[in-house]
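Repro:
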Amino acid sequence: MKTTKRHLALWGIVLMGLVGACTSPEGPKRFTLLTAEETGVTFSNKLEESLSFNIFNYLYFYNGGGVSAGDVNGDGLVDLYFTANQHHNALYLNQGDFKFKEVTETAGVAGMGGWTTGVTMADVNADGKLDIYVSQLGDYQHISGRNQLYINQGNNAEGVPTFKNEARAFGLELRGFSTQAAFFDYDRDGDLDLYQLMHSVHSNGTFGSSDMRYEKHNLAGDRLLRNDDGVFTDVTDSSGIYSSALGYGLGIAIGDVNRDGWPDIYIGNDFHEDDYLYINNGDGTFTDQLQEQLRHTSRFSMGNDLADFNNDGWLDILSLDMLPNDYEKLKASTAEDPYNVYHQKLRQGYFYQYARNTLQLNQGNGHFSDIGLMTETFATDWSWSGLMTDLDLDGRKDIYIANGIKRRTTDQDYISYVSSEAVKNRLKGDLTEKELELIGLMPEVKIPNAVYQNEGSLSFKDVSEAWGLNQESYSNGAAYADLDNDGDLDLVVNNLSDSAFIFRNETISPSQETTPNYLKIAFEGPDNNPLGIGAEVRVETATGTQLYTHYLTRGFLSSVAPGLLFGLGEEQSIEQLTVTWPTGEQQILKDPGVNGTLTLSFEQANGPEFVPALATQTLFQNVPDALGVNYTHQENYLVEFNREFLMPHMVSTEGPAVTVGDVDGDGDEDFVVGGGKWQAARLYLQTENGFVESDQADLIADSISENVALELADVDGDGDLDLISLPGGNEWNTGHPNTRPRLYRNDGAGSFSLDATAFPESVALQGGALAIADYDGDGHLDVFLGARSLPYHYGAVPSSFLLKNNGTGQFEDVTQELLPGSGQVGMVCDAHWADMNSDGRQDLVLAAEWEWPVILLQNEQGVFGEVHARTYGFDQEGLWNTLVPYDIDNDGDLDLLGGNLGLNSKLKASAEEPIRLYAEDLDNNGSVDHLLTYYEEGEESLFATKMEITQQLLAVQKRFPQYTEYAKASFEDIIPANDLRGVFTRRVNELRSGAFINKGEGRFTFEPFERAAQVAPIGVFLPLEIENERYVLAGGNFHATNIQFGRYDASYGVALEVHQDGSLQAVASREAGLEWVGEVRDLAAIQVGTRTIILVVRNNDTLLMVEPTPKVEMDFPIANQE
């Protein structure tokens, strides 16, 4: 097998490790891993597989244990409690200077044997001392555990705290598949209530409809318990909390995500069940709003956290999964579900899920956007604990992830082996030592934990190695705490089969010449919540505002130390600090000081009562009644992947379009909106009261054709607006009658009639774009028809058409004479006529996939020539969805607004490492094979999984029967270079959307939009002027992708403010007022009386209407910036 750069890099790591064992690392690390000998923490979570208990009969056998941090003996130092799955738990008292002493036996907190999972600390009985609550597996197989509540009895004569298990007395001796507990005051009555997260196993009968989540399961169902005068009452049944066997609960996080003052709950569920986002209704009940507020989630959700990582005042969600970031592990592991299985789960009521980490950005308006792909935090392998906190004290929350699995149960070669009938029969019933040996066949690979430094502007950087946190391990629970009280956060990690990690943070240490500023917060809460759990603190400085919430259960199976720590970077003062207590009381402090500990007391909360975040003045507002328009686009079900297995996305869902004009000649603007297959385009005529639908027989008769582009124009010169419709859908072979454009002539009163002879019969295409202009100056409107694709041949360049109008609306095909390449100008997605070189002639601007921006300049003879892209500064080969001519910088010439794929994708591209698409029938079976490649560690690599590529190329299966072999193979190993000789190849080196600024003399410079506008594909722009201020609206998203990519769904519409200097800035989503859920395909402005209404047309969804909000003097915040 060929040795690749990837393999050389791996050898380099090995050699570096050998050298590093004998020499000091170059430069100091931010964290230092202390040894067990240095700290005295010798705890290790060791497992013993047995016939009675193992991965075959308990699927969470390798999930590991947790860690809880807190000062249990009141000496001002944070102590540590570790859970062990099969052995006794351990309590270590902090002696100072990172020295710990185990006191488990004396303290009486070893646990009860069986199988222990999570742990959290809280002052449950409100006596001022930290108690310990331990979750336990119960009544499964031979294990009959119960949760334990260790109430702190105070210190003995030696200063060691002693504990007593009083779970039964408090009503907390819970029995079942306990994972982890979280204490919080959900009813805001001043005391701590409890949410008990449970998990499940497949033998509980969990495969079926999502309706099973409404069926109560006494052992696997989650539980909500209300604190009633110190005794906990199970109120699950009346609370709106699901308590079924479907809940494979692994992660729980608490926080007020909608800023109404009531704590909400995020639950991460493994396998096929949805995660839950429980919004607190404020009346003792919760409503799961996950499907309303999120667009998709992680699939195998594990640990999670809630924190405001971008400092906009709204809590975001981190949820972890198990997508490998190493290429070989990725290709050897289980991938996403096949397309048919994925959609079968949707039909059963489950939500959109992808096997990767998600970082859900809270837009502040009841919607979240997953930007994990853009931040490149989406793949950290088998990840358990995710913590968002400021590790370098620069004022921005970083992300720490503890990961690793003792045995890789997702290894495809192993799955293939145990899936054989012979092996499956052996695993039925009682196991013997021989069957137990099968466990040893699972790969054992330690992997490094990960940390991402928050660089601001929705950007993170992997600094795992630079910060000294990349030790290979099987890590599970993790917690942060300032163990040495120096003002920075140290890390503690519970490992399987290895000693626990204790990392000392060196951000503040004598070795540092300069150190950042900080402020620690301690709490003196109300009588029944002395620690102030649930308090929220906002710190305002000259550079922005930070928000922290005081909830202890975080990550996975673990809890962090009480108190908060704000990193301030170079800020030497705090302008204002606001604490909001769980019951709503507030206190505001001016200039509280820095570089120390500030104790906030509930008794001093004399500020104004907390006010929920109310709806703010927005740039746009919804038109509530839609002015009488009742329209929903209906996309027909066509799976192009069944005929072109490896195409990256479908092209059959790119409608509908909308066009505006005065159709009936009454002086008011009307509009036509397109339909899907078997759905007619509709004409809406404006009346005094809004709009009424006009029956159009010929449009109904042509309902079999999809309308991907529509234009109203007077093509026959009779003074009224006719309608041209361009079909798409990629369903019919080119040349079929359903691929022909249509002209509907207007009778002057708003009635359309099809003219089947207007276009030559030879003009047929899968439409992508339609542009109308009098290009030759003869007074007649001519037509450009942009071809999008060739069915069954994605990637091939189809033929577009230029049609000359003879003045009566009869068109002549002049493509061969006037267009370059006989009309093969790209896979056209958008087209506009514009004078791009200020010579008085109309030129063609085309957006196309796998191309740089295409400008066809018209010469004096009316012939169009394609400009040389690099001569004009168009080096950006992209997946361009739209290019709109617009004078952005107001200098009198036309610039371009460019909508591309964006950065929130698994694909990354640059000039040095482009994305490539090889499209050819490589095996001569009559179908096109699509090989999509990208660069991984400097090596061109196939994107397709082995399962996907062997469906199309059987020879690959013969050469690489094992997944491991396929994973290790280079691209050239899998597809020999000789096979690619002469193969049609496309490439992309730019994925960002942005502006092409016309510098004059035929030169353009590309200025990408800020990252807030890169979260999804942009498919349409609409420039607007509102009260003498300029804005550009952008719509996008795209769902019909290969499942390995996942849906592009993070955008809710973008409002770009156009400044006088030509710069564009995104208005924050909450302030913009845009909530365009789904795939926006077209935008149009229509005048309704004195109102300017924006029509927002979405694929397979309703038509939306928005309008500018009446102006109130205000500055709109820039989107998602600190």
